[in-house]
Amino acid sequence: MRRRERRFAMLLPFEILICLLLAAAMASAQSARENAASNDATSKIPTVRFANGVGQILVHGKPFLILGGELGNSSSGTAAQADEILPKLAKMHFNTVLAPVAWAEIEPTEGHFDFSILDHWIDVARQHDMHIVILWFGSWKNAFSEYTPEWVKVDTTRFPRAISAEGLPTEILSTFGSETMRCDSRAFAALMRHVREKDAERQTVLMVQVENEMGFLGRGGRDRSAAANQAFENPVPATLVQSLKKNRLKMAPELAANFNPEGRTWKEMFGAPADEAFMAWHYGIYVNQVMEAGKKEYALPMYMNAQLPAPGERPGDYPSGGPNPYNLDIYRAAAPAADFYAPDIYWPNFDYWVQRYKAAGNPAFIPEARLESGAANALYAYGEGLAFGFSPFDVDSLPLVENKPEAHPTMGDVYGTLSKLSNEILQAQQEHKIRGLALHVSSLRPRQTVSLGGYLFQATLSRSWASNALATNDGAMMILQTGANEFYVVGNGLSVTFFRDPDIDDQVAGIAGIERLSSNNGTWQVVGELNGDQSDQGRRLLMAAHEMNVYRVKLYSYKRDPAAR
Ligand code: DGJ
Predict the structure, then answer these.
(1) What is the C-alpha separation between 381 and 388, in angstroms, rounded?
(2) How far apart are the first and last CA of the chain?
(3) Burial class (CB in 10 A: 0-12, 13-18, 19+), 524
(4) pTM of the full predicted structure?
(5) How far, in Å, CA of 27 to CA of 157, rounded?
(6) By the 8 A CB rule, do 267 and 175 touch?
(7) 396 Cα–ligand 1 center, Å
(8) How far apart (Å, rounded) are the C-alpha atoms in residues 240 and 331?
(9) Would you say the CB of residue 211 lies under 6 angstroms from ligand 1?
(10) Are 211 and 307 in contact (CB under 8 A)?
(11) What is the pLDDT of residues 172-202, one digit of tens each?
(12) Pocket probe mutation, ligand 1, options 214, 370, 393, 397, max atoms within 8 Å of Cβ
């Protein structure tokens, strides 16, 4: 046997199928991209573009800022829930909901599809001028396979389970189930066909997240089924090897630390993280196949989300092989159909994870985040992360309280303000004339500084000027440069001091004036000035702690007295 034939013969039938599918997928991804491009030019379906470090979603051909919120897992399983939830979120200025659509919901009997619940959600969303991002809970949701139809769950021969290190079947479908992949793809294709027919013109549905926080949970972090074990001993697929070698300089440090380009098997090439790398590849090619099937019907932007490892967690404590930053180099090779990858950020170091995904070349979109710190982190996400969308989790649990005396701004307050500034934010993101930061009461950092337009903005959490009491609330701000020395500062709870940026010159900065603005039918009007105690006698911007405000700050600079040195 010649060498190439021998290598092929060593592969399992499933792996041969995967190689063929991958080759076909790459060709069809190319044509899907070309279709998407021509769609963009003609019917302008929603598209995500990424240029100059900034991601944007175009809806009807125009940039759109997603002021999003993800629904609880059991909040969109009936049509009636839409009538209750969407009007409430619309009142709180959410313009987009991320809503689960379960495989079990649309295909309760094999081959028979029912989209009536989704259709009602789309209809109600339209009544409230809202959009939907569909979360496809197909083969996996948080590693497990709970949202699959009963006919999938009961047939463990046709739809094999991943096997644990203890040799037991799990509640996780194996990535090696060729029928599982085929049937998930078929259901997803039916869903996308239906969305195209119902919605291509209106574009209520913007994007689709395909699966949810997949990865193998359990000791060892790898499926130990016979098919998986056999594949694990085989050579690493050439497509992956070539891609990793080509992009080696940009590789995630966690993968690079162990990477041996001369290795042949998974263990030889990836070392300690071999099990996770192996799972990442297999989840990647599986989901790519599902995405491809969907994009053939309707090429909306599609992404995957990741559960992020906590410090000290090992693969398998968190879903091993999910699209976390360590694995993105593998996903890029496995899943050319994916438009981007996105982090679910529940950890306190929100900024770190936003920047990790950006550094890996993703347009910034945060599909899940902790609701309690959502108001502050939203300003960081749009201002500093240049996100085109942010979406705290479980937003339907928020109470609708109007005119309430809250101690701090709510998500509704933040989105209410940002909705009036969407165009300015989108423009400033494009021009890199925007910054943002969030300080949390629990944060170790007492102050943070950002630079914009020749000035440094140094922020600490506000104390009351009257009592000097310690800050009890988070504080955050987004700064947009609107002129040579003029800035809109949006936020709450911070005390901000201004300096000239020493990288620009060594002059001294001063405050020319601070105004509080309010939007009246799209025009910003001055509703107050901040002087005296409210500006620390003209030396600082003291932002109200309990409400969101838009401040217009005019600065100036002057030369130091050289003799004073
Ligand atoms: C992350 C998942 O993606 C969500 O569906 C939900 O289960 C949250 N975790 C709960 O915290």
Answers:
(1) 9
(2) 83
(3) middle
(4) 0.91
(5) 31
(6) no
(7) 14
(8) 9
(9) no
(10) no
(11) 999 999 999 999 999 999 999 999 999 999 9
(12) 393
